[in-house]
Amino acid sequence: MQNTSLQGKTALVTGSTSGIGLGIARALAQQGAHIVLNGFGDTAEIKALQTTIEKDFNVKTIYHNADMSKPEEIVAMMQATSDKFGGVDILVNNAGIQHVANIEDFPVEKWDAIIAINLTSAFHTTRLALPAMKQKNWGRIINIASAHGLVGSAQKSAYVAAKHGIVGFTKVTALETAQTGVTCNAICPGWVLTPLVQKQVDARAANEGISNDDAKKGLLAEKQPSGEFVTPEQLGTLAVFLCSEGASQVRGVAWSMDGGWTAQ
Ligand code: NAD
C-alpha cells in the first residue's frame, strides 16, 4: 500500500542495502519518495531490492555504490542523484560500521574507517545537499546516530566518538538551517538485530560458549530494559514522522528509540 505524503520527493539513504537503512528506505518509498540506495552487497541482490521497492511502492530508484569513506565517491553519488532526480530532498546519513576492542588494542585503521564512514561522510553528503535544499526551502536531514551518541560503552571508543560527533554535527546543521524549511535531526536507536549486531551476538556466543538465543538475551539484558530489539520498521516510522510537516519545528534533537537504554 502506498501513501502520498512524500510524493515527488527524492530520498537518499546511505548504507541502505541492509538493516536500518533498508527499513528507512522502504518506509520513505511507501510515502511516495523516489529512493537512492547506497551500500555494499551482491549486485543481483541489490537489483532485486530495487525491483521490490519500485514494484511495492510505485516509485523510481537508483543505486550508487559510493564508498562512504571516500569523499570523491560521495561527490559522484550526489552528482548522479542530481542528474537523475534534480537533487536530494531527504538525506538519511545511515551508513556505519563497528569494531570492538580496548583502546590500547584498537587497530588504527579501524579507528580511521569508523570516523570516516560513521561521521565524516555525513559532513560531505550534508555540505553537498544543503545548497539545493536551501534553494527549494525544503529539506530533511536525518542522521542515524545511536544510544552510543548519548552514552558510552567500553571497547567501542571509535564508534562512541563518531556517534557523539554526529549528534553534535546534527545540532550545528539544525542551527544553520533554523530559519529555513530544512530541518536536521538525529535518531538514536538501541539494539536492532541487523548484520552489524549479529556479529556481536556471534562473538558473545563464542566467547561465553552459549547459544545464539542466550547471547541475544544477554546483550539485551545488559543495556535495553524492554528486553526486545528495536526494528528497522519502527525506525522507518520515526523517519517518516521527521519528514512530515508536523515535524517542521523539530530541530536539532537526538531522538531515542532504544527500549529505555538511555533512560537509566
Ligand atoms: P548493517 O550492517 O545492517 O548495514 C550497514 C549498511 O552500511 C550496509 O548497507 C552496508 O553495506 C553499508 N556500509 C558499510 N560500510 C559502508 C561504506 N564504506 N560505504 C557505503 N556503505 C557502507 O548495519 P545497521 O545495524 O543497519 O546500521 C545502520 C546504522 O545504524 C549505522 O550507522 C549504525 O551505527 C546505526 N545503529 C545501529 C544499531 C543496531 O543495533 N543495529 C543501533 C544504533 C545505531
Automatic annotation (TrEMBL):
Gene Ontology biological process terms in this record: monocarboxylic acid metabolic process
Gene Ontology terms for molecular function: 3-hydroxybutyrate dehydrogenase activity
InterPro entries, sorted: 3-OHbutyrate_DH (IPR011294), NAD(P)-bd_dom_sf (IPR036291), Sc_DH/Rdtase_CS (IPR020904), SDR (IPR050259), SDR_fam (IPR002347)
Signal peptide interval: none
Family: Belongs to the short-chain dehydrogenases/reductases (SDR) family.
Protein name (Swiss-Prot/TrEMBL): 3-hydroxybutyrate dehydrogenase
Species name: Herminiimonas fonticola
Organism phylogeny: Bacteria, Pseudomonadati, Pseudomonadota, Betaproteobacteria, Burkholderiales
